[in-house]
TrEMBL record:
It comes from the Bacteria. It holds the Pfam family DUF2243. InterPro entries: DUF2243_membrane. Keywords: Membrane, Transmembrane, Transmembrane helix. The chain crosses the membrane at residues 24-48, 75-94, 106-130, 142-163. This is DUF2243 domain-containing protein.
Amino acid sequence: MNNSEELSNPSTSNLATPGEYRPLIIAGLVLGLGQGGFFDGIIFHQLLQWHHMFSSLTTDMTVAGMEINTLGDGLFHLADWLLTLTGIFLLWRAGTRAKVAHSGQAFFGALLMGAGLFNLVEGVIDHHILGIHHLKPGPHQLLWDLGFLGSGVLLLVIGWVLIESARKAS
């Protein structure tokens, strides 16, 4: 089929169908994971200084303890950076494909889902399974950790609603 036939026949045009959001959603999820990690590291590790990567394993009140925690935070940020670079590459690749839908709503929903997924995975593994740190150590640390998990669920739900709404609108 030639280009003039594709343009005259809407069923074969380059218009995206709902299933063609997948590359955009995957890029958004990966970017959301990286950005969720950066948010955690910048806000909770650096600005609020509630915890560091290994603060439940070694104190940050000694030079040696702070060095280990700073190394952990650096490795954590390196992983966030690699996820972000991967997400940018995936977004660029999705943007070069003619049949991929371009929806800000679906992309933002995927970003939120990625950030929520970050909170759930990091919260379950680091706070509960490994116990290497808690969101806010001290009194009520379990509530803070559960709140972190709850924020992850909320971000996942909001993101999913946005993506589904975009799919229905297309």
